[in-house]
# Entry
Amino acid sequence: MTLLTRWLAGTLLLIAATPALATWRVAETAHFRVHDRQSEARLRERATLLEDYVALLKLLTNRRDLPDGAPRLDVFLVDDIADAMPFERPDRNIAGFYAATPGRIAAFAETGATGQVILLHEYTHHFMLGSNTAAYPKWYVEGFAEYFATAKFSADTIEFGGVPPGRGSQLVRGDWLPLTRLLARDPGLRGPSETAAFYAESWLLTHYLQRVPGQTAKLRAYLAAVAGGADPLEAFRTHIDPDIDAFERRLRRYMTSRDMTLSRFPRPAATVAQVRVTVLPPSADALLLRLTALELARPRDHQKALAEIAKAAARYPDDAFARRALAFATLRLGDRLAAAPLIDSLLAEAPDDATLLRWRAMASDGADRAAAKRLLARAYRADPSDWRTMLAYVRLADPRAGPLADNDLDVALRAHELAPQVGEVVLVAATALVQAERLDEAGRMLAPLAYSSHNVGMTAVAGALLERARAGDRAGFLALLQRATRVAPPPAD
# Structure
């Protein structure tokens, strides 16, 4: 029986979610801050699993860890993904998502089996972007994440290389995209059926090239050519197989052959002491996910969202967490001047809080850049690894207006080193490099964003800027940037 037929004949065992408790807990590990309302034991288990997954990725990909000082990824586990999207109506077909914005990088997932697969998939993207600056074709970005997100952890074993949920049936029963479209720089997907085919075929092609003897060297040569600017389709013909139709027939045969394997090996013993659990105040039950949603994006109905947060915060008038939520909501959705005294009150109790100092800089009058810069300098001293402070500082310096001072350029590059997953960080740092006439470096920085299969608007801008950087067209790059982006002070996020 082949791997695929075993999967199709098997039964998917769902991980039963434990009843939600009112208390939010946070488990901190080397790479994560996991927020959950389940029991502490269950939270430790999930946090340990995520750390084991990082170790698996590093082992199997031979990639370096995320850079020193890189922020822990905030993970929020919820019973219903709608809880993570309090100001909008979510697509009921999703069980998790990942967001990398100027305000926060975070992943959200439901507590069941499907949510866990999505969480591992999205963390793979986060890890891939953070540990390697190479640009990969869209099919490999998604296929790589699908391939590794099949990892399953039991008490004593780890298994990976199996069939992702839903992908097997798509390959057996659904229509396929022609391989020439799958490999294209932009496959031009139209509708859910083509998207489903793209993900399933991307997983299968990745599985084949990762596991069939003799294919990994070809894959490395192909990926290196694409990263260097070669057309993905022509690079495939050059380095993997000149006859794409014949290769597709071989790929279809592989899908049902005994050559399709998975891996299983012992799971190392967990080091429980490396997981530190803290309990958030009761106000977090009403405000944590609302505050997080505000950090990620502004809701459409500002006044409704602000009223909801103000009403919830009023129930906890002496609670610092509730006061922070109200201060940030006022800053983000209301009046910056009205937010300033709220933030000042919190700063009086915690004068070295980097987040509050950054918020206070945002609340400063837009004309008083000097005051905002001083506040951001204090925030940096309080937390030298907070890339959000660095981004806000560089935005105030405004790289569109001309070359940055050397120290400011260093700040922009450090922000990118810490948070290359955030499109705005990439654009700001690349602009600073272009102004310094370092267009080759700017091009290499832009390429992963330009080839991304997410954030289509940002990807399109990055792709157009990449073309100008590779052509050495500094003036064209800056002109396009002025038209297409808003990298202007005062910092809004």
Q: What stands out?
A: The radius of gyration is 23 Å.
